[in-house]
Amino acid sequence: METAFDWITLHQDMIYIVVLSVFLGIEVIGRVPSVLHTPLMSGANAIHGVVIIGAIIVMGKADSGNYTALILGFLAVILGTLNVVGGFVVTDRMLEMFKKKK
């Protein structure tokens, strides 16, 4: 338990940055009008593509005993892939709404 407190104390600045980033992201996304949803989805797909590549690189360079890096890299690959695929499905569905009906 003491090592967990030591780790939190050592990385306190990073934890603050992550927490503030989460709140800032929620505020920014909450104020986006629905008209801009599709262009932002395309941008999010591109960003998550970079996240997937970065996670694969981190996993490739991590030591085999560094389970934290391997687990976080694996989760980043899975969640990034789900977000990219979901974004393409939503974008495709929205674009179908503008096609002429047969």
Would you summarize the structure shown here?
This protein is mostly helical and 102 residues long. 81% of the residues lie in helices and 0% in strands.
Total helical elements: 4
The structure class reads mainly alpha
Distance between the termini: 65 Å
Mean pLDDT: 83
Order of helices and strands: HHHH
Major β-sheet profile: none
DSSP E strands, number: 0
Rg estimate, integer Å: 18 Å
What proportion of the residues form beta strands (DSSP E)? under 5%
Question: What would you call the shape?
Answer: elongated
**Uncertain runs with pLDDT below 50, 5 residues or more?**
none
Helicity level: over 70%
How would you describe this structure to a colleague?
- The protein has 102 residues and is mainly alpha-helical.
- It has a domain at 37-102.
- Helix content is 81%, strand content 0%.
- It has 4 helices and no strands.
- The longest helix has 30 residues, at 67-96.
- The protein is elongated and about 65 Å long.
- The mean pLDDT is 83.
- It is found in: Cell inner membrane.
- It comes from Daejeonella lutea.
Top keywords for this entry?
4 helices, transmembrane, cell membrane, EC 7.1.1.1, NADP binding, proton-translocating NAD(P)+ transhydrogenase activity
Please outline the helices and strands.
Layout: H1 2-10, H2 12-30, H3 37-61, H4 67-96
Helix pairs in contact: 3-4
